[in-house]
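Late entry, evening session. Most of the bench is empty. Finally got around to the prediction I had been postponing all week. Sequence below, unchanged from the version circulated by S.P.
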Amino acid sequence: MKQNVLAALIEAGLEARAVVLVRNLADGEQFLVDRVGAYKLEEGVRKSIDSEISRELLERSQGALARDDAQAAEIGGQRYLIQTLSPPPRLFIIGAVHIAQKLIPMAHLAGYEVCLIDPRSAFASIERFPSVKIVNEWPHEVMPKLSLDSRSAVVTLSHDAKIDEPALQAALESDAFYIGALGSKKNHAKRLERLGERGFDGKRLARIYGPVGLPLGGRSPAEIAIAILAQITQARYQKVV
């Protein structure tokens, strides 16, 4: 691997940013693609090369990025290997409730980096949640610092509008691929109404899965957690590029 490409990969890794490594299988040319475009590093400075590659190759590469995909492609008579290199997807759980206790280990098994957010330290404690990063801050204070991206999922479980809704608002303003909210259909309708009063239109509000989880019929915290993780998985792999 060329030194400048390796340096760019290291930089992306330090920033926890997913990128696609594109290799021309004929001449060995290498470059990176992210959500912004195709680029190389020259003397530590990012240089856009969008104008030097075909639109089809750029779109195929960004499509692979969105799907966490790897593929070989023949474009313009050239063969390319397109490989996504990315950090683990992130799951932000709002609310230190019984469902969260079941969902966290399941999400870890599925490969997610999990963060539990709840200002109530009596609930969100290391004694109740010994194996996860805990943030005892209000969502409206911490969520803007999290750099939610297309590899981020957010689930609100607290049943407290003061905690859940600022988190939902931050998620709606981000590229998070999944936003879920626990609550009955009646409560969810009221929640959407309040968020609508804050300026979110119907299209944006439709991003929220509520009531959260696939309709599997489960009732226990573990069964609900299974339904939530199943829905997150479905959303992650059914993203439209």
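Two things to note before I forget:
The chain has two domains: 3-85, 90-237.
Helices lie at 3-14, 55-67, 98-109, 139-142, 161-172, 185-197, 202-205, 221-237.
Will write this up properly tomorrow.
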